[in-house]
Amino acid sequence: MQANDLRRGMAIIYNKELYLVLDFTHYTPGNKRAFVQLTMKSVRTGKILQNKFSSTEEMEVTHLEPKKMQFLYKDRDGFHFMRLEDYQTISLSEETVGTAKNYLKENMDLEIEFHEERPVSIELPKQVTLKVTSSPPWIKGDSVSNNMKPAMLETGMQIQVPIFIDEGTVIRVNTETGEYIGRE
After folding, report:
1. Is 0.90 surpassed by the pTM of this model?
2. Any idea what DSSP says for residue 45?
3. pLDDT in tens, 108-162
4. Which domains does the chain have, with CATH numbers?
5. What does the angle CA 94 – CA 98 – CA 103 come to, to the nearest 5 degrees?
């Protein structure tokens, strides 16, 4: 596949190592040749690289196999998931889970992508529902404009929510941006 055809989330083999494409930007500067800038994460080391490639350069794309899993719990050994087809459990480190840890709730169904039977990345749904565990109360005079306040969610993540959201409210959060979408 040519570098120009790569997209976010794809897996490639670069320098004999597996990388996930985190970001993709295509540039066509004036009178020069077009190029692609990739932000890639090494699956083995977790190191993030930014490289430029000619837009016509051939890249080796590899297939990731998605498997339906259910998040069970987190402990000192890591994050534990169960494969829904055969009830086999796996444990992933915090480095492998990455920022997905901010959205994981017990018994949540999701997909984990595997490469040669090794877990590589977690595919979250576009939005999740989470409970607000703490949020400062709003003051009556604050309702003049579109004010936001910090709120701590049940997963330990802190986001900005409208001032009318109180502790105990269940809200929807966008997993791609980490932003408040609405109340449940």
Report:
1. no
2. T
3. 999 999 988 888 888 889 999 999 999 888 766 655 567 888 999 999 999 999 8
4. 3-62 (2.30.30.30), 65-123 (2.40.50.140), 127-183 (2.40.50.140)
5. 100
